[in-house]
Amino acid sequence: MSETKTETVNEDIPISTVDSPAVVLELIHQLKVKDVMYTAVLTGDKKMTMRHVQALLRENRIAGIPIVEDRKLVGMVSTEDIINALDKGYIDAPVEDKMTKNIIHLQDDMPLSFAISYFNKYRFGRFPVLNKSNELVGILTSTDVIRNLLIEMNREVLKLEKLHKKNDTSAHSLYSEMEFSVEHYNMELAGRASTEIKKALKLRNFDSKLIRRISIACYELEINQVVHSNGGVMQCSIMPDKVIITASDNGPGIEDVSQALKEGYSTANEYVRSLGFGAGMGLANTKRVSDEFTINSTVGKGTTVRAVVYVNSSKDET
Question: Are the beta carbons of 211 and 201 closer than 8 angstroms?
Fold first, then answer.
């Protein structure tokens, strides 16, 4: 996908997909783009003139409009495009001749964390959202992200308050075994394992810094399986004195483990990088937050990573 001329903004969304508070990280990995996008989308036709689109933008107080044909996204026209049309004297030209045709878009089943990475990477004010059939189903703006996160955070606070009153610590056994299947390129389920493991730790009143370290390890290993493996299994053993996370996948394996552990080293393809991943920090981050870290990999047969975090560890997650 190449860069569109969609309206740019001067500020990133002030949310990090790595360093934000635990409740925010949980929400942005749990929520999907379709949960927060605006669905009543005003669209244009490629046979319209740029002047007609100018009127639509002004009347509806919006900064851009997607151009569709048979529900398929074929282009975008932004206020910048209209300004150029006025300056260069082609305001009465057909939209299909002047619209931006190479569009960076989001998919409706992507985790919200992917969308935030898009906003911070491309610095656009809005993105069109497509479904699995490549049909336009919504628009996502930075305002939509912030507003819906505030709403969900308020719900989470109320839920945790009720849970704290209802449940006594002694009602939850400290020992627990959890297992999750991870599918290759299934972005809809990406982050599910790490989210559920984090919930289990919260129910057992683990220290917040400890939960943060374990959550980072779980999420990094899970995303690695989604984008690099052919599918795998995430296992978590919660014990009174430690938490063990084991990630086992099927192929393709790692040729040089020592190289893979270096920060910035990545074998991610162009598609994975377009989603905001592939920075080469997954294994390095996992090792950084773990008290014990081992990795065994065979080319063509798969990789198993084992990370251990001790309850009484004084290790800093940074």
Answer: yes
Q: Which residue has the tokens 């100018």?
A: 54
Residue 60 burial (C-beta neighbours within 10 Å; 0-12, 13-18, 19+): exposed
Q: How far apart are CA 16 and CA 200, in angstroms?
A: 23
Alpha-carbon distance of 233 to 193, in angstroms, equals 10
pTM confidence score: 0.53
| Cα–Cα distance measured from residue 10 to residue 119, given in angstroms and rounded to the nearest whole number | 11
CA–CA distance, 69 with 96 (Å, rounded to integer): 11
Residue 311 phi/psi, 5-degree rounding, is: -60, -40
pLDDT at residue 308, rounded to an integer: 95
Q: Which residues of the chain have pLDDT under 50?
A: 1-11, 168-172, 272, 276, 278-279
Express each pLDDT in 101-125 by its tens digit: 989 999 999 999 899 989 888 888 8
CA dihedral 142, 147, 148, 153 (to 10 degrees): 120
The rounded radius of gyration (Å) of the Cα atoms in the chain is: 23
Cα(221)–Cα(169) distance, integer angstroms: 29
**141: nearest Cα among 64, 55, 71:** 64
What's the DSSP call for residue 48? S
Burial class (CB in 10 A: 0-12, 13-18, 19+), 51: middle
